[in-house]
Every structure is written in structure tokens, then in C-alpha cells.
Amino acid sequence: MIFRISLILIFLIANSAISSAQNKGCVQDLEALLEILQDTPSYKDQIKGKDEKGYLSFFEKLKTEASEATTKGECFLVLGNLKSPINDNHLFLSEIPEIKIDSETLQDSVFMEKYKESDAFKNFSRVNTDLDSLELKLEELPENSTEGIYYYGDYAKIGLFQLTGGNYIAAILETKLPHWERGQIAFIAKEFDQGKWNIWNYSLITKSLQFISSDRIVDGTFNRIAWSKFPEREDFTQVSPEKPVFEFNQLNENVQYLRLGTFATSTQKLKESQEFFDQIQDSISAPNLIVDLRNNGGGGSKSSRKFYQMLRKEVKNRKVWVLINQKTASNAEQFTIQIAKFDNLKTLGKTTAGILAYGNNYGKSETLPSGRFQIYITDMADSGGYLAYESIGVQPEIPLEITSDWVDQTLQIIAASEK
């Protein structure tokens, strides 16, 4: 089902029509972004020789598009396209919001009234189509269709449909959030490789633009932006938010469970990690150990190294079963690749996030000349040879089903392996 609406038309209906001076500013932003990208380790690794010649030719084409951009949204679309060929998912391009919206202001009725009277709200990007008809057509599509109805918990409902030219657009159909309105655009998505999506996303809370590269749809859910076709279905791939970040349990006489939910390296998190390690390092005794890395968004080797060294010792005395999922990312993915080399260790679950080759030592961002956009910069080289996994992720040796508890499934696999 393709709606004959062009992407340009949607942005012409969008917010913040810009003046000729601001139009020039989009070109300046694009030129500044190129300079910033050229200084990153990922650019230097990937864009060279003939590839660089082609990339710079692509830049000139985008420069023309930037000079013709008439809205903030169009400009951001061009900037995202410049970043897209660089396979580095730690690089993060985003809008600097003109109006600060957060969890506090959402509760402020006076603020919300003023916001709804503002040009920012009235001119916010929206679709110009019959939403009732759209919703009926999308509801008829099969579950495995990319197009369809998606939900963000019970906060909002969108209709995702394909545009002329192959891009997809998500329009708000229902929402409990006071700063959104039916028909406004939640995100635009473009499949640039089979199963990989670049997404120009509006943050559900701040309503500011974000460029999300290489997202994937996993079992009906966009992995990084979290919109799902099945909000009421229990997701056994995930770990409950109430579950402790670090946990150690005896599941039965033959199996112990070790939860490593973060490798964050802030002073406080390193302290918690070390205290947990000191408590459990001499407690592993069962013939089987389940290590749960689900939803571990990474951190650094300052945290993970001690657990790596511990597991390198433990695999000599017992079988180790490592749970990974689509939210296992960054240093947790690097950790998985390294421990997967051990004998007596198996990985189980779902393919990881694919955000691991590069990183940022100092959390530095740079603002583009217009002051409207910023980019979070990567300054850490791919020292471990992880580029082959970027945007692809680490595949488990044993896939697990989404329909039942993963620890229970692993216990069944362990039991079968001992027969």
C-alpha cells in the first residue's frame, strides 16, 4: 500500500518555514558537518580512495538540496543523509530544541496551554491525508507487514505507511500526551539495506529531531525507537525494569544465575560493579552458569574487564550460557565477542544491537553553525576490529523463542545437554 504523497510535500506542510538567510544556514550546517565527520575515526576508516571521491560527489548533491530546503525538517533530512554512509552508530545527530519540553513541563497545564498556542505547535510537521481511511487500511494489513499500526506503550498510537519513493512515514493517530496531536509526524523511516532502517525521529517527550541510523524491526518492534505492533504481548526478550542491574542467584543445584546489566563507568557505577564483583567472585560453584547480558547498553572495559577475567577462569570448571538480546550494545557486545571465543561457553537469545565499533571518551558534542542542530562525536578508534559487527550485531549460537521466559528456556537446554 503506497500513499501518493511525496516527502517534500510533507515537509512543505511541516513546521518552521525558514527564511533565505536560514536557508543559507542549512548549507553552512552541511559544510560544518562534513568537516566534523571527516575528523572522526570512522570516516577515516571507511571513506577513503574511490569511496571518498564518491562521498564528496554525494556531498555536492546534498549541498544543492540544502540550498533548496525550506523547513527545519528538510534541512535535518539532508544532514542525516550526509551522516548515513558512515557506519558508526555512536555518532548521533540531533536537534537542539527551541522550546524545552520534559517530564516536568508535561505536567504544567499553563505551559501546555502556551505551547499549544505557539507557532512551534501549530506548524509542527504533519501529514495531509485522510487519517480515518488510513487507519482502516493499515488495520487490514498482515502482522508481518512493515506498514501498520504501532504503539508506544499506552502513550501513543501511530499509523506507519509508505510514501511515493519508498520512504515510510509515521503519523500520530491517538495519544495521551498533551503536546502531541492527531496527524502530527512521529518519524520518517527509510530502509537503506535489507532490514536496516535510517530514521528521522521526533523524540516522544521533547519533540526534537533525532537521526537514528541502522535501526531494525525485531518481532514487530523498532529496536531503538521502541514503537511496537504488539504492546500487550509480554516480551520475553527483555528484562523487567524492576530487575536489579547486578544479581546472583542459585536456580537449582546444577545452575547459578549471574545478571550483568551494565558496564557503565561513572564513579558510582564502577563502585557498585566492584562491590558486586567482590561479593560473588568466590561464590560460583555449580556445573552451569547462566550469564544474563540482556539490555546491557555497554560502558567500558574499566567495568567489564574483571568479569571477563572471571569468566575466562570459570569456563575451565563449568559450562557457561550467555543470554544476549537486541538491547545488548556497545561494550557489552565487545564483551560478548571476546568471551564467545572461550571453550565451554554458548551464547543464546537474539542478535545484539550492532553499536560497538567506535565510541566517545569525553561525551563531547558539537553545535552546527545555525545553532539548531548538534552532533555527538566519536573519538575512539575501532581498536578491536569490531566494524564487521557494526549495524549487524552479534548473532547467538542458540536462538531463543520470544513466547516464553528465556531463563526457563535456557534451563531446558541445559537439562537436555546433560542427558
UniProtKB/TrEMBL annotation:
Chloroplast is among the record's keywords: no
Stored Pfam families: Peptidase_S41 (PF03572)
SUPFAM superfamilies: ClpP/crotonase
Signal peptide: 1-21
Record field: transmembrane: none
UniProt KW keywords: Signal
Keyword set includes Metal-binding: no
Domain Tail specific protease span(s) in chain numbering: 255-310
Protein name as annotated: S41 family peptidase
Natural source organism: Algoriphagus namhaensis
